[in-house]
Amino acid sequence: MAQWIDACADDEIDEEDVMRWDHDGKTYAIYHSPDGEYFCTDGLCSHEEVHLAGGLVMDYVIECPKHNGQFDYRTGQATRAPVCVNLRTYPAKSENGRIWIEV
Amino acid sequence: MKRDYSLLGPDGQRAVETGLATAEWYHSDVPRKVMKDLMQRSDQPAIRDTLLLVALMIVFAGAGIALWPTVWSVPFWLAYGVLYGSASDSRWHECSHGTAFRTPWMNNAVYEVASFMIMRNSATWRWSHARHHTDTYIVGRDPEIAVMRPPEFAKLVLNFFGVIDVLRFFPNLVQNAATGPNAQERTFVPQSEWAKVRRVARIHLAIYAATVALSWALWSILPLMVIGLPRLYGAWHHVMTGLLQHGGLADNVIDHRLNSRTVLMNPISRFIYWNMNYHVEHHMFPMVPYHALPRLHEIIKTDLPAPTASIAAGFREMWPALRRQLAQEDYFVLRDLPPTAKPYRQDLHETALGAAR
Asked: Which residues of chain B make contact with A54, given a CB cutoff of 8 A?
């Protein structure tokens, strides 16, 4: 059953940036959007399982550091080759200076 | 042991079984904030360079046409040819990564035009190049190995004039136009893209057919001097720089410092080549745009072999190594690391490092 997990402090991720978060044997990517919202997706690229946290956030896009494939991290949608498979997304929220992820 | 470069052969299968394929590669340490800054995209440098490239092509082709068929047109065709048949290679490359421009449609537009000029199917080669970055110089996995062992020197020399590439391109173009990707291409192009491969091939084929028809109608090769033939008479620069990327270095390793070469070059070659002379840096961090590669080089150079001093120095290192590979297929040039660098991982590269020197 899904539950909210305290992932990190909200000042650990700069605006328009991404951070890796590992929990319960799985890896996730947490994003801080340019307008101050937080989002969470699977942590590995659906193309060749590279950690997306090493990639570049541009507006609402995360670009994979290996092959430059892109996803919209708000929806997980794959938007640029060579990625074809969407990422799974997870609800995220900021409360009392902490970021919570529902997994 | 004899190498089998087929993507469907035993070497590729072995690379998968031994974990060489899709492996975790070595990366120099770069702080996240610094890397984030290096990765930033901008339209301005690539717009400037593209406008300059197009303007130069118009001027050179215009002068070539105006002076045709006198001998005075030759220097203009040679200059135009290098921009058409060589600068297109680097534009194709950088835009395939999506790093040249910040704006996606600009990357895509330049990518499509450059793919046509360099005679590559834009739909196929986007995937081929992704594989080249996943499995750089892994035998049986990388479809973009420029110098296979033992080297075939006649083919290398012919390709300075694009001969081998063009001879391979046209039969494949016809096949792609008729049936989509061939069997080897289907190993790295996803099925969802096969129709696009066919569509692109048909467009390219139609343009070449129209150019040949115009030449026929005018009873002149002038239209072909503008479209098509520059891929032959202007190919030498991209072949010259392309061979230096990995030629004579290791294969079947997972450290780009072992299989890629950074070469310092003159500003004209760097414009044509769009800074891909910083090739170790590019492979290690493909997210960094071409205009930021010199900065990246300065940041990580203490962890890399010293850059080769010039194109000539690169050939002086590479050519004897290729000649030696004729008799000794496993031979490669092992480039020394400075004392400040993290050493090569002997445990991962025991076979390769044992064969060096």
From this structure: 35
